[in-house]
Design a protein that fits this description.
The chain is of the alpha+beta class and 315 residues long. The chain is built from 13 helices and 14 strands. It is 40% helix and 18% strand. It is elongated and about 65 Å long. It starts with a helix and ends in a 12-residue tail after the last strand. This is Amidase enhancer.
Length: 315
């Protein structure tokens, strides 16, 4: 009997550690399970039903940034897109547009159409970038920021105050070098007839008005104000009316042919994170967190969680 008890004791000593040594996924805490049961959904304009936040972020990164970009640039874009969406929708409560009025979103069928044979490779790369940053958002003083971003800078980003008149601490001008090495086109040249120019602006310019034109630039090199005889406009208004690539522009008038020549540097409004700037920094070895803290001054990363009271409202 004593021998039998001894054998049973040895067996128990062997098996108890094995039973206790479970993989991490089996030993998840109740808090982990609560987080998993409280997903965030985003309602995208034009879609039949809300989609999971991270699925939405994949669609935005796919539409807003080339899949060929460095993984750290893609991660930075994923975090910026997630932050922008959560702030804009108030944590998923409001609808968000799927175009440039908010941020562009491509569903899976659109991504397949866009990428063709490269779909599987590109999809995996972007999925990996989104999954690696899942839940990460950019905060300033512990509150989510308005994470504005744009394509290409002129070497500096624009301030929120210059762009909209609102001074926002984390949207100040910062250097964004190296974009000419990674962007296909930083400088663009366009031309239009004088008639088209006047139609776009709703004016009646003549040669004398071009001669007296003054482009008043701000500290980032962009046109803050344009003035000539009987005409005054902000650089932002002129960019929007004329369909220019940026507010860093120069204007020349061909008197002989009545043609207006416009040269622009950069692409987009210039506020927040430059996407090609992020790519340039990523190629220098910067991680996504460093890229974001550079373009959004004084910010940090934080994990987003829905308040417990909101979990019941998810679809």
């Amino acid at each position: 009997m004593d021998k039998l008890l001894a054998v049973l004791f040895i067996i128990l000593l062997f098996f108890i550690p094995v039973l206790l040594k479970q993989p991490p996924e089996v030993l998840k805490t109740l808090e982990d399970k609560k987080e998993e049961s409280c997903p965030v959904y985003i309602t995208v304009a034009g879609m039949d039903k809300p989609i999971l936040l991270e699925e939405y972020v994949v669609g935005v990164v796919s539409a807003e940034m080339p899949a060929t970009f460095h993984s750290e640039a893609l991660k930075a874009q994923a975090i910026a897109a997630r932050t922008y969406a959560l702030r804009t929708t108030d944590g998923g409560k409001k609808e968000i547009a799927a175009d440039v009025s908010a941020q562009v979103f491509y569903n899976k069928s659109k991504r397949k159409e866009r990428w063709g044979k490269e779909f599987k490779k590109n999809e995996k790369k972007i999925q990996n970038a989104v999954q690696a940053t899942a839940g990460d958002v950019v905060v300033y003083n512990d509150e989510m920021i308005t994470a504005m971003f744009f394509s290409t800078s002129n070497g500096k980003t624009e301030t929120a105050e210059n762009y909209s008149g609102n001074d926002i601490s984390y949207l100040e001008t910062v250097d964004s070098p190296g974009e000419k090495e990674v962007a296909p086109k930083v400088e663009r040249k366009t031309e239009m007839t004088l008639a088209k120019w006047n139609k776009a602006l709703g004016t009646n310019w003549n040669a004398d008005m071009f001669r007296s034109l003054k482009l008043i630039r701000n500290q980032t090199g962009r046109v803050q104000k344009a003035e000539t005889k009987g005409f005054e406009s902000t650089g932002r208004e002129m960019r929007e009316l004329l369909g220019l690539a940026s507010t860093d522009f120069n204007i020349a008038f061909d008197l002989t042919n009545n043609i207006v020549h416009v040269t622009t540097t950069g692409y987009g409004h210039g506020v927040g994170m430059s996407q090609y700037g992020a790519e340039a920094y990523a190629k220098k070895g910067w991680k996504a967190e460093k890229i974001l803290s550079h373009y959004y001054s004084g910010t940090a990363l934080k994990k987003f969680k829905l308040p417990e009271t909101e979990c019941l409202k998810s679809p």
